[in-house]
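For consistency, the fold was encoded as tokens, which produced the following:
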Amino acid sequence: MIVLTFDLPLLQVLRKKYYNMVEDMKGKIRVYCRARPLSGSEKERGNYEIVQAPDEYSIAIDSNRGKKEFQFDHIFMPDASQEDVFEDTNNLIQSAVDGYNVCIFAYGQTGSGKTFTMIGDREQNFPGIAPRAFNKIFDVIEENKSKFSFKVYTYMCELYNEKLIDLYSKDHSDDARLDIKKDKKGMVFIQGAVIQEATNSKELNGLFEHGSENRHVASTKMNAESSRSHLILAIIIESTNLATGSVVKGKLSLVDLAGSERAAKTGATAEQLKEANSINKSLSALGDVISALSSEQQFIPYRNNKLTMLMQDSLGGNAKTLMFVNISPADYNAEETVVSLTLPGTHPGSKLITNDASKNADNKEIARLKNIISKLKSGEKPSTRMKKKALDRSMWHELSNQNINSQEGTFFRHPGCCLNLVVAFIRPTKFVAKRFTNYSNVYKVFPNRV
């Protein structure tokens, strides 16, 4: 007689694991939960931990209204190291280098450990996700330098009192004209922001430290160094395949959100109350967006706040997204902890948010033409090599059977003409249409235009 035995707890853990794997394959955003250790002041007050983790995917809270359990893609308890946390983000860094739009952000109550998770401690004895990501980016670049050439750019801004401030700008004023835009593939970028290039991880880390010095912080009863703004660091990684010439451009967005606050606990000053009101308003807008996405509403209120506009491609957009929900384990913060675990539409709500992640790629000829256009628009003369290629009939003949699409329209090329295709890209629409009436062998079609 054969007796079958089942390890029920193990089966439940495996079920959660495989469910999350399937959902990730569908493009669902991943949500991790991290509980920090009790602080020194909490221990002095006699506070105790109310957080338990039955397994690596579940977390239980002993609240005033009884025990509540929540499900996540992964749970990091207070004994988890910074290395443990970063280990699960390695593949996302690789995706950014491969040309995908990637976003990692931390959400939670003030003093819950968001900045420690994303950045680390001030002395960098325990570096967080951002500095580790800098090293990982250039490690991947080093591994692939024989097949690809790379360029790495970055911009860094903060959203303070509902104003965007460029942290790389020399005067750091909030008067600079910064506009939140989306490119034709849905990637969000900040127009007008200072963009810096980095050639190694040390330079990238130096730029980040320089920008961080200008971020608004203040001391409250809940946090000795409370972030008073949302920090947005974008790293653009452009790679060119040395064999095919194709170009892909990935973006890694690292977002350290300011924490939600209760004035009664923080002991905030008048100015800090104004900051807290702005922070809570933007986080509420973020909750509204996630709720709308989770319930599959037709209208998603991205434009209700600059924070949600900045994160539009990360929530329901084209990014691979990872969200950390940071919580306090202390009984003193039980109510805020439950709100943090519930408000952002975490599992199963967040698993209803699907992103359409895709590479940002251009083929060799389109990438080269864009480079010529960029140089001409900036007043820089194309190199002799570029001119020679522009006049190379064999190259244009290769394009003669292709339609080249741009925001200006579709260009059709007859084998008898060489240079006019480039002109068509850089001249204003009316001028080009008039100019081309004198050329019987070149045609230009403007879709949806008169």
